[in-house]
Please model this.
Amino acid sequence: MPREAHNKAAEAHDTAAKSHRGAAEQYGKGDNDKGMDHSGKARDQSKSANETSQTAHSKSESMRGQSSGKK
Model:
């Protein structure tokens, strides 16, 4: 289960990174409106990726506690 959670977190971070790159590209072209759109999307995706990472970390900690006999 933790492996799936970490894979999901990695995918979420990849998606956010793609939006950040899209924002940078649009700003580089001088298209501030599209850059802002991409930036907002990237921000939201980054927040989601962070939450997904925290969930994955919690699941790993939980599994580690179970494997060492702790509850």
